[in-house]
Amino acid sequence: MHFTSEQLLDDGVLERRFTLGDIPGILWTSGSEPAPLILMGNPGGLDRMYPRLAARARGSVVEGYAAATIELPGSGDRPLDADAEQARADLRQAVQAGEPVSDEIVTRLVLPLVDKAVPESQAALDALLTLPEINDGPVGISGGVLAIGLRLAAVEPRIAAALLFAGSYVPRSMFDEARQVTVPLLVLLQWDDEGNDRQMALDLFDAFGSKEKTLHANMGGHTGVPAFEGPYANQFFARHLK
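Now predict its structure.
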């Protein structure tokens, strides 16, 4: 892990960019005491998503957490995957035509991404949890591609709580993995998100095996998550990480 830049933001949050091998990432911290880590997911393209990512991260850091995110495979400046690009084009075509998105398309697009991204997220945890400004566990995960968060919550024992955004497709084959998830969950669903399958999100929430799971459904489109969900998320993580 190699830090490439740093800047102190106006709210006292220290933002540092890093590389983990050839994977870019960003770390936000504040204060001298070790803080619990929230690993923030993203839909790919750190520079494109930076304003939303930074706002989420800074909202968490000022409440006593550290936050970090890494670039997804095939996004940003990372090499593209031809099969994934074709699957993404097929999904876009189906949505624009008003046709159902087949599970075959979702599987071709999502499963290879999950298989690559989850080990990279675990490697990021290995590196981040050695830093003196970060507690060595437990860890929370927040947002990003739903299927990646699902897999991480199922297989990574350092994760103690997960905030998942029900805003992306999940292959039906991963519903069995959802039943293996037992950590506390907070799932955010935008009710009017036309680009995603609301019923699939509800079915997936029902499939999760966690004894503590909460679903917040808000009116509005994909990027319309209400601001009040941020403080609620911090309360959720405080119950399980502090």
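The two ends are 26 Å apart (CA to CA).
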